[in-house]
Specification:
Structural class: alpha+beta
Distance between the termini: 23 Å
Number of strands: 15
Number of helices: 9
Strand content: 25-35%
Helix content: 25-40%
Order of helices and strands: EEEHEEHHEEEEHHEEHHEEHEHE
Largest sheet: 6 strands, mixed
Radius of gyration: 18 Å
Strand order of the largest sheet: 1-2-3-15-7-4
Shape: globular
Length: about 270
């Protein structure tokens, strides 16, 4: 990953850096005004943080981008597989209607310039997608429930339907999230992945030290990209474990649900 700001408040992806019409970011914990378990750069409004702090942090974020977004579109995620296309229906809706449309959404996609689509995470895996042929983007929230239910694969298929997206045209970025060594799971989670057809020898490991199975969510989502035909060389993985690097990134396993979130966003600029 690359730093977008001198204070490392926001990071970006090398894979997307060559595309001047794409702006993307991943926030860290640094450089904001929130306090306590939200300290300090929490830009997500749904987790109990002070609304004014969130607003100020979002303003800092927007001011740091080379092109200011028309808006930050942040869904209320529920660990499901529902995806929403940001199109004329959304853009022409009232504020109340937009709020309703964003409920229960774990992936966003669009071709609209200036609309910064975002995903909030704190150990779950954020994935940003860019279809360079058809000028479409997506942001996907893949926790273990989303991953085991193939939210990334479903989102890619939806992009194929809406935008004629093909795997060979996708640039994919797998962001900071919990790593295999840190993500120990119970037998029921392991069995759910196995029953859903994941190759457990590839995405999991038994740790004698913990007497637990450990799941690699990065690998499980990478497989969904490869299955869609995305070339491996077009997939960038941040390789950052939020649980281990909790001083720099929010970790719900460390801080609990009432805490800050990393915001991952992507936008088509007006270039």
């Amino acid at each position: 990953m690359i730093s977008l700001t001198e204070d490392k408040r926001m990071l970006g992806y090398e894979a997307l850096a060559p595309y001047s019409n794409i702006s993307c970011f991943v926030t860290t914990r640094h450089g904001g005004c929130s306090r306590g378990d939200y300290a300090s750069f929490n830009c997500t409004p749904y987790t109990g943080d002070d609304a004014e702090c969130v607003r100020r942090n979002q303003e800092l974020l927007c001011a740091s981008l080379l092109q200011r977004p028309k808006e930050l579109i942040i869904p209320f995620q529920t660990h499901g597989t529902e995806a929403l296309a940001i199109d004329d229906t959304y853009l022409q809706a009232t504020d109340a209607e937009r709020h309703a449309l964003l409920q229960g959404i774990d992936a966003l996609m669009t071709r609209e310039p200036g609309c910064c689509i975002c995903i909030s995470t704190a150990d779950c895996i954020p994935i940003l997608l860019y279809d360079k042929e058809h000028q479409a983007i997506a942001a996907v929230h893949a926790g273990w429930r989303g991953t085991v239910n193939y939210i990334l694969g479903h989102t890619l298929e939806r992009m194929r339907t809406l935008y004629a997206t093909e795997g060979k045209d996708i640039i994919a970025c797998i962001g900071p999230g919990i790593s295999l060594p840190s993500f120990e799971v119970g037998d029921e989670v392991y069995d759910t992945f196995r029953e859903q057809g994941f190759p457990m020898e590839y995405i999991s490991e038994w740790k004698p030290q913990t007497h637990k199975h450990h799941i690699d969510l990065w690998a499980a989502n990478r497989l969904q990209l490869l299955d869609f035909g995305v070339p491996g060389k077009q997939i960038e993985s941040a390789g950052i474990c939020t649980y281990r690097q909790h001083e720099d990134f929010f970790s719900a396993r460390r801080l609990g649900i009432k805490s800050g979130r990393i915001l991952s966003g992507i936008m088509i600029t007006h270039n």
